[in-house]
Amino acid sequence: MNGGPALVSIMRQGSTLIASIHTALDDSELVRFEHDLVAQIGTHRSRGVIIDVAALDVIDSFAAHTLRRIAEMARLRGARTVVVGIQPEVAFAMVRLGMRPAAGGDHVTTALDLEEGLALLETAESGGPPGGAAGWSP
């Protein structure tokens, strides 16, 4: 991910990391993003992670599985993950790929936008119900 404009950015806001994907990533870039984000969760002792995918007009099965793995690794490190900004076309494609809402902890929480994602994490930290607006699993 060197040279040219940043493909992703990871910022810290309090105990939350906000990762924005700015353009479609190939598989190796997704793996590097996964590694970098999980490493920063530990470095900053993050309690929440928001992954903003609003710039993406497609999410393939590898990207969906990568997001799910990130959420699981974050959970194992004590952080909750919310994916925000899923475009309508992406939602349709995800359903066609067989990614359905899941029960229990085997899902990725989603929210409409960054503001809603932050609110979900705040509710979870203050002892509100776990999960959130919606969840999906590949």
Written account of the structure:
The protein is of the alpha/beta class and 138 residues long. Helices cover 40% and strands 21% of the residues. The longest helix has 18 residues, at 27-44. It is globular, with a radius of gyration of 14 Å. The model has no long low-confidence stretch (mean pLDDT 85).
Assembly state of the chains shown? single chain
* Classification by helices and strands: alpha/beta
State the share of residues found in helices, binned by percent.
25-40%
Q: Average pLDDT across residues?
A: 85
In short:
The chain has 138 residues and is of the alpha/beta class.
For the structure shown, list the relevant keywords.
138 residues, alpha/beta, Transcription Regulator spoIIAA, six-stranded mixed beta sheet, 6 strands, 21% strand
Task: Describe how the helices and strands are arranged.
Blueprint: E1 8-13, E2 16-21, H1 27-44, E3 48-52, H2 61-76, E4 80-84, H3 88-96, E5 108-111, H4 114-125, E6 134-136
Parallel strand pairs: 2-3, 3-4, 4-5
Antiparallel strand pairs: 1-2, 5-6
